[in-house]
């Protein structure tokens, strides 16, 4: 819940001038700003309802998003799970609703500091994944993007070390591979948690880290562009 109209213009201009060939760059602004981006920018939304339409005041349907040329939607972000009590099952329903209308879900999973310290990290991540697998089936994972976001590293300035990020990304891929090796090998798994221009290259160089879900750094177009270029390298 950040940004303004001048930032939209600044980011649009920055992206138009940059050489981003061979990169997938998706901008996910707050709902009111979706319609301000001009063509040439791939858009995603930060959330959507699991309902198609109806008496759900304040919610946004996936079909509404497609009318604004959205191709992606973030689902299950840790802040949505915390602030709006979104359960694993509710997140799974949103993934299914997005796929139904050919939106690509960016499915967020990740643990708090207390979960990591309890030694139940992998069980926690597996439960988040399994709820979605149960709802849509493993083969449908070929149509989604995963984002691992350690909650303790979001907006805190803390960042998982490249080794910590790789460990969890590798677990995610291996967990999916138990059911479908092809899906597991080809799915994009992004890292999200205080990614900056200064640490992006090392994070993205890890074998199972396929890119980033960028939060605070995306509010600075120069820093965001440096992260994009780190991914390109």
Automatic annotation (TrEMBL):
PROSITE patterns (alphabetical): TIM_1 (PS00171), TIM_2 (PS51440)
Cellular localisation: Cytoplasm
Annotated positions binding substrate: 155, 194, 215-216
InterPro entries: Aldolase_TIM (IPR013785), TIM_sf (IPR035990), TrioseP_Isoase_bac/euk (IPR022896), Triosephosphate_isomerase (IPR000652), Triosephosphate_isomerase_AS (IPR020861)
SUPFAM superfamilies: Triosephosphate isomerase (TIM) (SSF51351)
Reactions mediated catalytically: D-glyceraldehyde 3-phosphate = dihydroxyacetone phosphate
Functional summary from the UniProt entry: Involved in the gluconeogenesis. Catalyzes stereospecifically the conversion of dihydroxyacetone phosphate (DHAP) to D-glyceraldehyde-3-phosphate (G3P).
Protein name (Swiss-Prot/TrEMBL): Triosephosphate isomerase
């Amino acid at each position: 819940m950040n940004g303004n109209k001048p930032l939209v213009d600044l980011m649009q201009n920055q992206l138009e001038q940059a050489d981003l060939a061979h990169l997938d760059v998706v901008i996910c602004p707050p709902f009111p700003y979706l319609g301000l981006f001009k063509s040439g920018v791939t858009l995603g939304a930060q959330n959507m309802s699991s309902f198609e339409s109806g008496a759900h005041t304040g919610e946004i349907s996936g079909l509404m998003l497609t009318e604004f040329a959205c191709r992606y939607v973030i689902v299950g972000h840790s802040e949505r799970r915390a602030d709006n009590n979104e359960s694993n099952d509710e997140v799974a329903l949103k993934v299914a609703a997005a796929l139904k209308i050919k939106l690509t879900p960016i499915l967020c999973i990740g643990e708090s500091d207390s979960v990591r310290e309890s030694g139940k990290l992998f069980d926690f991540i597996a439960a988040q994944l399994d709820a979605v697998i149960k709802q849509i089936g493993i083969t449908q994972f070929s149509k989604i993007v995963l984002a691992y976001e350690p909650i303790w590293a979001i907006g805190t300035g803390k960042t998982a070390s490249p080794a910590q990020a790789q460990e969890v990304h590798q677990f995610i891929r291996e967990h999916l591979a138990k059911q479908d090796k092809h899906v597991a090998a080809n799915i994009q798994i992004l890292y999200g948690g205080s990614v900056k221009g200064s640490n992006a290259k090392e994070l993205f160089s890890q074998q199972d880290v396929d890119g980033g879900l960028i939060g605070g750094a995306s509010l600075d177009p120069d820093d965001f562009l440096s992260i994009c270029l780190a991914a390109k390298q």
